[in-house]
Amino acid sequence: MGTSTQELEVGHAEVRLGIVLALLCAGMFLVSVDLFVVNVALPYMARDFGARALGGLSWVINAYTIVYAALLVLGGRLADNEGHKRVFLLGAALFVSASAACGAASSVPALVAYRVIQGAGAALLSSGSLGLILAFAPPDRREAAVRTWTAAVGVGAAVGPVIGGLLVTVSWRAIFFINVPIGLITLLLGIRLLPGSKRDAGPRPDALGAVLVTGGAAALTLGIVQGGSWGWGSTATVAVLAGAALALASFVLHCLRHRNPLVEPGLFRSRAFSGVAAAATILMMSFGGMLLSMVLWVEGAWHYSALTTGLAIAPGALMVPIVAGLLVGRAIARLGAGVASALGAGVFGLGVLWWVLAIGPHPDYPAAMLGGMLLVGAGFGLSLPTFLAAATGPLPPQSYATGAGVINMLRQIGTAVGVAVVVAILGGSSGVHAGLGTFRTSWIVIAALAGCSAVASLIVLPRMTLRSTLSAEPSAPALQASGTVD
Question: What fold is seen in the domain 266-486?
């Protein structure tokens, strides 16, 4: 029997979608790895640079996190305005070149400066990545595409600490140099294979809006990250957080009045989008606090090495792509987005409560830690792709990357808030002197935050299926006119 022209075209489209997904996921894998890989290398950097304390070196992490979070919205709008492929490739080029410079840095200030550029590249790459997937994948394939993209993020988070633990045994510089060949392959193949799009860009987004949201997000993240070391009541912390509040409030007012705002006000009139923004931010607070508390516990109380710590965390993170690939579609089809995301957040919280009951002063990984880690990973793997699908599905194509940028920025800020909460509970930047009772308190608070995310999901997320969520194609005027997208 012959093969019809239509079947050949469908097969070709499937192959091309697979190639596009592979390239975009490779880029997100690098970004996700770099959010976790540097932590285990800080002591080695301190020894190499002759630093007496890790305080200054903490900016190697903070600079990347702050710039990445702050530029996600601007990167999303640029991607929607100038073309997702163009912004993705620009981000990949910045990320690769900055990675090479980080590996060759001769001083701490130079390394921090290169990490700023790396964070900017990561923000552009992330914004263009999800926008490309949502714009290129046909409506009936977006469910699988979003799950695959989420799986790449989960795998990067899983192997980041392990990769870091392995590479620092050779040199801390290797954690940056390894990005170069992978990034160059992604960049060169992306130039050739990623789909382009013709844009009727219209007027450029307002510069003032970009400055306000970027400056506000940067100041907010800076105040959260540094609040523990500066003192929460210190002049510096209060001034930075007040400046952040002023900038972000001004940004909201500016968007309401501007003819071509950076973020359309109609975006937050979508019940799905605003609901995800709240629930996802709270869950990421829980996630950020969970990850930091477990690293501090196993390294401080159980005296695990950097490599052993990474291996201890990896099973939970590996559950993210497994659950995202096998269960998310069925869960949302049967339960709806709100119930599915609430279920995921609830399982996440149960995993943290496992540690409250099971962990003792003496190392016992199989009985005390592993079960909770698997539950945490499974819950996160169910919630994260559900949040992304519910937030971006009802948006018009010209707002895909902007909406994804807003959600991802809030995720990063939520993570920073969770870290700050744990630091405040443990009573210091290192948590070395905190006892088991104090750690149990932090885990109870983290579990409570996960519970709040579950409640928020049930209250504000619509009862939609993935098919209705990811196949929606409303126009921008319709979105703005309706006021609510259910």
Answer: Growth Hormone; Chain: A; (1.20.1250)
